[in-house]
Design brief:
Blueprint: E1 9-11, E2 14-16, H1 17-29, E3 33-34, E4 44-45, H2 47-55
Antiparallel strand pairs: 1-2, 3-4
């Protein structure tokens, strides 16, 4: 009997593929991440996101801060 698995792809230093896309959409829908401008390519972690990611046990200190 063959077991079916769903892939979680790593692309360079980030999570890619459909799982990465679904997580991005979910975090944006929950306002855990946002864009300063809808045309921006990059997201930032919101205050709510900082609280919620920390509750999940993520160490956000491993993410380098950027100047805005």
């Amino acid at each position: 009997m063959q077991t079916k698995i769903k892939p979680a792809k790593k692309c360079y230093e980030h999570l890619g593929g459909k799982l990465g896309e679904l997580l991005l959409e979910n975090f944006a829908d929950k306002n855990w991440i946002a864009r300063k401008n809808p045309a921006d390519k990059h997201f930032y972690i919101t205050e709510l996101g900082e609280k919620e990611f920390t509750k999940l046990g993520l160490d956000l200190s491993k993410i380098k801060s950027e100047e805005v």
